[in-house]
Input
Amino acid sequence: MKHSPGPWMQDKSCVGRTIVANAPDGMAFNLAHLAGDDPVQEANARLIAAAPDLLEAAKVALEYWKNSIPAYAFLPLHAASAMEFVKKVIAEAEGGE
Output
């Protein structure tokens, strides 16, 4: 299943932070609520709200690597590991393995 499209926003209230998205019809709905108002919850809310953009950035980076590095090129171990990590994260975010 595909996630709700971005952008996702965070909304601060007196009881915590709510992550909000827009439905295709333009109506806002709550995706998640984080109770509390401490710096850790604020950071968690920012990270969750950035998730759609982070996923898109990972896809763009992977596509760039695929299109700019010849298949026969030898990649340093750290670059190959980074590419595999990005593939894994994208698969996890999209419900794959």
